[in-house]
Specification:
The chain is an alpha/beta fold. The chain has 2 domains: 296 residues, Collagenase (Catalytic Domain) (3-Layer(aba) Sandwich); 195 residues, Neutral endopeptidase , domain2 (Neutral endopeptidase, domain 2, Orthogonal Bundle). It is 52% helix and 7% strand. A 4-stranded mixed β-sheet has the order 2-3-5-4. Helix 8 packs across helix 12. It is globular. The mean pLDDT is 96.
């Protein structure tokens, strides 16, 4: 079988005027960056988004096919096909949705404005969360960080409508605050609420106060400080102004949900308790009302959809055009019954050969990590043995789950969109809360098979690569192996690397927070981590002059990138089994690894999204993800860099952790 080249797809976008020694990202992507147009309904563009669009088109075919069959009565009532078809039909019935206007949310708004005191707030907040709205705090169910054999509820800071607490205080976000206030006023006006300007100000004032209780985003990454187990009694004492029993009733959870809870930022709940005592009920009514309106807005008439998009799409992300209705409908169905869609997706679009080749790639990456750990000169043998143990217990998940989710208890209708939204949210709430007290399901997936992404989960020590990402430029079963190792190989290495980054390295092979390091080895790791933080603190994005990368916020992903590329290259060399790779299109094997690594990060973002991501995203901007290659001796050897080159780093300044 002939070998194809992924880099053939990249060639036209390369910039020969930029040397890889000066800017690998710019060399591989420069012409594309200058000429590519971001689609009007997108805030960014590049291989990631292009693959997501491809998956979306494939999913559309599946959904519309089921929709046609459901409408004709050709599917079994209660089957996944019926649910998929009816959910999509309810979203696409724009004539009915326009006719209803704001009517679907009026009962909720009436109830919110009927609350007589702050004591009524917890129960109502729980009801809103159950229906898919945002709450006073964030919450999710996961394995206990110190006992991975059980599930517990995690509670974290929340309650805001802007992306981050910094948006409420930093001068550079002043225009966004002004636009947000106008957005709130317009949404209240559309919902028929009296004195919309007054209500908007109440919401803004409430959120501004809540934001003052938030930790800065980088601080929330400390996994030890984020583990604060509270019994129900301790939870009551932490926030005495909040009735947890009433909240739980509204949410629909059993008493055992709150028997023990991990409060990730206790200071926020203490602050919230104070805020509940300080602000009058009028503020909280407005705050509840906007959560009802905002959660429902994408599913209401076009004036709500457009106004909501105008702020969250245009203002915050710079996206000029609302996505076509069918695209939003596909996203809605995937959000409600995504694994049902995914089961059909993999049957049609994920060949068994790809799964087998991925098994080989993962095995080579794990072998490369073992070799790398063996060669570390800063880690003791004692800690190395524990690292091997963790490496040996990694669980790879490739393509799709062995068992797909059961949606049999979800009841949907083809003519009640908001009812379907609420039903799907309640189904998911019940599914998550139902985990508490049940055995841990280690076969569960936290991404859909059609998703173009990957993840590492420390609580189960697993790496997951959905079918959606196992395509060019990340992976092609017929491609040059060097390119596959620079693409999906480095992605695999990145996810394995999260098991050994600043957060994951504090979890043992069983998925528990447990210090398996000697003190001296941990200190040596911290020195290298801080060196990487300092390096990234010095980076300024090419399209945001004067702004800086937050090295502390991005350090986990930077460690993942550094380890992923290092080990991806090492695994490629292992795969050669001593053979000398041929030179293709004038590039050595190592160079092709680096080229495809830079190509997969080919990304163009609208300036508004760049600013937002620089503030809240734990990933560095794509250019710095690609150019992390400057830390690898192998990069300098492959391209013959020298002092004075743009990516030259003195050997003493290069960071190598794994």
């Amino acid at each position: 079988m002939s070998i194809t080249s992924i880099l053939d797809d990249a060639t036209a976008g390369m910039d020969p005027a930029v040397r890889p020694q000066d800017d690998l990202f710019g060399h591989v992507n420069g012409t594309w960056l200058d000429t590519a147009e971001i689609p009007a309904d997108r805030s960014s563009w590049g291989p990631f988004v292009q693959l997501a669009d491809q998956a979306e088109e494939r999913v559309r075919v599946i959904i519309e096919e089921f929709g046609t069959r459901a409408a004709a009565g050709e599917v079994e009532p209660g089957s996944n096909a019926q649910k998929i078809g009816d959910l999509y039909a309810s979203f696409m019935d724009s004539e009915r949705i326009e006719a209803l206007g704001s009517a679907p949310i009026q009962p909720g708004l009436t109830a919110a404005y009927a609350l007589s005191s702050v004591a009524d707030l917890p129960a109502f907040a729980g009801e809103i969360e159950r229906a898919g709205g945002g709450g006073l705090f964030g919450s999710y169910v996961d394995t206990d960080d110190r006992n991975s054999d059980r599930y517990i509820l995690n509670v974290l800071q929340g309650g805001l409508g802007l992306p981050d607490e910094s948006y409420y205080r930093e001068e550079k976000f002043a225009d966004i605050r002004t636009a947000y206030l106008a957005y709130l006023e317009r949404m209240f006006e559309l919902a028929g609420i009296a004195d919309p300007a007054v209500e908007a100000q109440r919401v803004f004032d409430t959120e501004t106060l809540l934001a003052k209780g938030h930790l800065e985003r980088a601080e929330t990454r400390d996994v030890l400080k984020s583990y604060n187990l509270h019994t129900r009694t301790e939870l009551d004492a932490l926030i005495p102004a909040f009735d947890w029993t009433a909240y739980l009733t509204g949410l629909g959870g059993a008493d055992e949900v709150l028997a023990e809870v991990n409060v990730r930022q206790p200071g926020y709940l203490e602050h919230l308790s104070t805020a509940l005592g300080e602000l009058p009920i009028e503020n909280w009514r407005a705050w509840l009302a906007i959560r009802i309106i905002r959660a429902a807005a994408p599913y209401l008439s076009s004036v709500f959809v457009e106004q909501n998009f105008d702020f969250y799409g245009r203002t915050l992300n710079g996206t000029p055009e609302l996505r076509a209705r069918w695209k939003r409908g596909v996203a809605f169905v995937e959000g409600a019954v995504g694994e049902a869609v995914g089961e059909e997706y993999v049957a049609r679009h994920f060949p068994p050969r790809s799964k087998a080749l991925m098994d080989d790639l993962v095995a080579n990456l794990l072998a490369a990590y073992r070799v790398s750990i063996e060669q570390l000169d800063w880690m003791s043998e004692e800690t190395k043995q524990r690292a091997y143990k963790k490496l040996d217990t990694f669980t790879p998940k490739i393509g799709y789950p062995d068992k797909f989710r059961d949606y049999s208890s979800l009841i949907v209708s083809p003519d009640d969109l908001l009812g379907n939204v609420v039903a799907a949210a309640a189904f998911e709430t019940d599914r998550e809360l139902g985990k508490i007290g049940s055995p841990v399901d280690r076969g569960e997936w936290f991404m859909l098979p059609q998703t173009v992404n990957a993840y590492y989960n420390p609580g189960t020590n697993e790496i997951c690569f959905p079918a959606g990402i196992l395509q060019r430029p990340f992976f092609d079963p017929d491609a040059d192996p060097a390119e596959n190792y620079g693409g999906i190989g480095a992605v695999i290495g990145h996810e394995i690397g999260h098991g050994f980054d600043d957060q994951g390295s504090q979890f043992d092979e069983l998925g528990n927070l447990n210090n398996w390091w000697t003190d001296s080895d941990r200190a040596a790791f911290e020195l290298r981590k801080e060196k990487l933080v300092e390096q990234y603190d010095g980076f300024s994005p090419r399209n945001l002059p004067g702004e800086q990368v937050n090295g502390s916020l991005t350090v986990g992903e930077n460690i993942g990138d550094l380890g992923g590329l290092t080990i991806g290259l090492a695994a490629y060399r292992i795969s050669l089994d001593g053979a000398e790779p041929e030179i293709l299109q004038g590039r050595t094997g190592d160079q092709r690894v680096f080229y495809n690594w830079a190509y997969v990060w080919r990304t163009k973002r609208r300036k508004e999204q760049e600013q937002q991501y620089l503030t809240i995203d734990p990933h560095s901007p794509p250019e710095f993800r690609a150019n992390i290659a400057r830390n690898l001796d192998e990069f300098h050897e492959a391209f013959g860099t020298a002092p004075g080159d743009g990516l030259w780093l003195d050997p003493a300044q290069r960071v190598r952790i794994w």
